[in-house]
């Protein structure tokens, strides 16, 4: 494949690193004190309580609501791990699938808030493209270690 300036694999690495930076920003911009005190989960509980789909309300009430502190840490550190993993290209396919799933959860929970949906859909699309295009082949620890090639 002919491209300007970089090879196709290198452009995919740029895409992967950009997605990693996006996840890192999702983690960075959280008010950690409020988030870990339950603010983020309380906000999400309010969104889930008004959700039009019963499965979302029920799932949130059974899985997330009883464990607000654990879920707050899980979400925040999942975003951090995804960001770092994608930036350095470590376990890239795993990070891409996990990120895609997390974006889909965000998308389903926030189905009524179209302001957030563009970000979630774009990140999910980049994850899918990166996964199927094997974007961990260049500029990555996976490539150096010979993993997933």
UniProtKB/TrEMBL annotation:
The keyword Membrane applies. It comes from the Bacteria. InterPro entries: DoxX. The chain crosses the membrane at residues 6-24, 70-88, 94-114, 121-139. It is a multi-pass membrane protein. Keywords: Membrane, Transmembrane, Transmembrane helix. It holds the Pfam family DoxX. It is found in: Membrane. Coiled coil: none annotated. This is DoxX family protein.
């Amino acid at each position: 494949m002919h491209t300007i300036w970089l090879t196709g694999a290198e452009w995919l690495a740029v895409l992967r690193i950009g997605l990693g930076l996006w996840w890192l920003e999702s983690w960075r911009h959280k008010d950690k004190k409020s988030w870990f005190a339950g603010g983020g989960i309380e906000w999400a509980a309010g969104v889930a309580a008004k959700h039009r789909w019963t499965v979302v309300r029920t799932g949130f009430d059974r899985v997330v609501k009883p464990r607000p502190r654990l879920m707050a840490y899980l979400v925040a550190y999942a975003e951090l791990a995804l960001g770092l993993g994608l930036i350095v290209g470590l376990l890239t396919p795993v990070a891409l699938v996990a990120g895609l799933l997390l974006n889909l959860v965000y998308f389903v929970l926030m189905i009524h808030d179209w302001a957030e949906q563009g970000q979630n859909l774009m990140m999910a699309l980049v994850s899918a493209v990166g996964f199927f295009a094997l974007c961990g082949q260049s500029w990555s620890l996976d490539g150096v270690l010979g993993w997933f090639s």
